[in-house]
């Protein structure tokens, strides 16, 4: 497999050199948001220009507020910018439906472009057409406080731990002011683990798969192994502060928390000194290392002035080479490989144990909410019923039934 990967990457680099032999003095225009405050955009530009003489990247900064709407208006007006960064899956879906996204199928086939995205690229594939590729993915991992586990004499979480084992470990770690686990108030932090099987989604209108996880959280609350939802909401406690207090043993959360954790430990604002990450737990019938997350990607405008040059950039940005540049800024690339994991784990303050480094290599990453015209309305419905279940105003069974009925009614319109 390593030889096959190396061969494929060599082919990509060779084709890239061929395409750019005829593309010198090219200026690529890339539409993005928060350009001046997003460090990885600067790093990507500098690295690409350094390795591709004669090619210049010019960013067009569009306000992050209502980015999808503003970009849609640009494309509808015939904008000829080469590349548009993808902020949301629904946004890309709308642009593709309107005919603005160029299919990447021919480019991918011609360059034998191999995927290191562990399933994430499928979220940018519509009716067999790959219309964008992801370059960032903040998937979820399990943070844990090594000091608390050492003090309790309990083994650390592993990268192959079931939810039942997680529950047992959380209960074993609880007591004397310590909570074995912390579930933030979001639906995603409590029950979105159901989508990790690659089958269930939050837009399919059938939510019986969430019941297991609601019961798991309520069992932990009843055992005193995690703070009650009502207490967290009433106090306004943020997940970062909760773990930073030093009395939470395990916290399922998005990888983005790594940077916050490292910085606040260095500044002395957190009462945590020794920590690690592991893969999120999984159900018995789900592969270890399966998780979910959100994507940031790039598409080529169908009216791009430089489509071949745009493909060369995207194929570089989303590959291992470009991903190492992104990882070097402290951001989680979408490409999954040991080389990328090496860069991520080399960040000052990242735990140096092999278990934490291995957690950077997920086996599968589902998307939190797939692109769908009803995604926003469905999220609102699920959020309302989630709150009612977690405050125990209604039973889990009643809440699931309400989710099913309300979403199916929406989908039937």
Give a short summary of the structure.
With 413 residues, this protein is of the alpha/beta class.
Q: What's the SSE pattern?
A: HEHEHEHHEEEEHHHHHHEHEEEHHHHEHH
Task: Provide the helix percentage.
Answer: 40-55%
Tally of individual helices: 18
**CATH fold name of the largest domain:** D-Maltodextrin-Binding Protein, domain 2
Round the Cα radius of gyration to an integer and report it: 22 Å
Major sheet summary line: 5 strands, mixed
Uncertain spans: 1-23
CATH class of the largest domain equals Alpha Beta
* Outline: globular
The CATH superfamily of the largest domain bears the name Periplasmic binding protein-like II
- Measured between the Cα atoms of the first and last residue, the distance is 48 Å
The overall strand count is 12
Indicate the proportion of strand residues: 5-15%
Average pLDDT score: 92
**Gross CATH architecture of the largest domain:** 3-Layer(aba) Sandwich
Strand order of the largest sheet: 2-1-3-11-6
What structural class do helix, strand and pairing data support? alpha/beta
Number of structural domains:
2
């Amino acid at each position: 497999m390593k030889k096959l990967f190396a061969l494929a990457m060599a082919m990509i680099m060779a084709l890239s050199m061929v395409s750019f032999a005829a593309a010198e003095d090219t200026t690529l225009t890339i539409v993005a948001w928060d350009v001046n405050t997003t460090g990885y955009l600067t790093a990507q530009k500098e690295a690409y220009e350094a390795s591709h003489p004669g090619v210049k990247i010019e960013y067009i900064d569009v306000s992050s507020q209502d980015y999808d709407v503003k970009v849609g208006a640009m494309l509808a007006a015939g904008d000829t910018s080469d590349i548009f960064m993808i902020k949301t899956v629904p946004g890309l879906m709308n642009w593709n439906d309107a005919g603005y996204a160029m299919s990447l199928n021919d480019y991918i086939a011609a360059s034998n472009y191999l995927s290191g995205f562990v399933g994430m690229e499928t979220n940018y594939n519509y009716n067999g057409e790959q219309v964008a590729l992801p370059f960032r993915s903040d998937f979820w991992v399990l943070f844990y406080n090594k000091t608390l586990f050492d003090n309790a004499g309990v083994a650390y979480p592993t990268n192959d731990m079931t939810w039942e084992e997680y529950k047992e470990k959380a209960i074993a770690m609880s007591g004397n002011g310590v909570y074995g686990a912390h579930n933030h108030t979001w639906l995603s932090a409590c029950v979105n683990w159901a989508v990790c099987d690659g089958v269930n989604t939050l837009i399919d209108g059938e939510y019986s798969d969430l019941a297991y996880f609601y019961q798991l959280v309520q069992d932990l609350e009843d055992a005193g192994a995690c703070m009650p939802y009502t207490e967290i909401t009433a106090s306004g406690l943020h997940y970062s502060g909760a773990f930073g207090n030093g009395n939470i043993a395990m916290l399922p959360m998005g990888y983005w928390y790594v940077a916050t954790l490292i910085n606040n430990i260095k500044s002395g604002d957190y009462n945590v000194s020794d920590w690690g990450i592991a893969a999120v737990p999984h159900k018995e019938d789900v592969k270890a290392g399966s998780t979910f997350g959100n994507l940031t990607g790039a598409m080529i405008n169908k009216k791009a002035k430089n489509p071949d040059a745009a493909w060369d950039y995207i194929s570089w940005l989303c590959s291992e080479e470009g991903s190492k540049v992104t990882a070097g800024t402290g951001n989680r690339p979408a490409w999954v490989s040991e080389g990328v994991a090496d860069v991520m784990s080399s960040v000052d303050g990242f735990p140096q144990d092999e278990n934490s480094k291995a957690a950077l290599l997920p086996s599968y990453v589902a998307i939190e909410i797939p692109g769908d015209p009803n995604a926003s309305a469905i999220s609102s419905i699920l959020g309302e019923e989630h709150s009612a279940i977690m405050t125990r105003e209604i039973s889990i069974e009643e809440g699931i039934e309400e989710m099913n009925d309300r979403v199916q009614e929406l989908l039937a319109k």
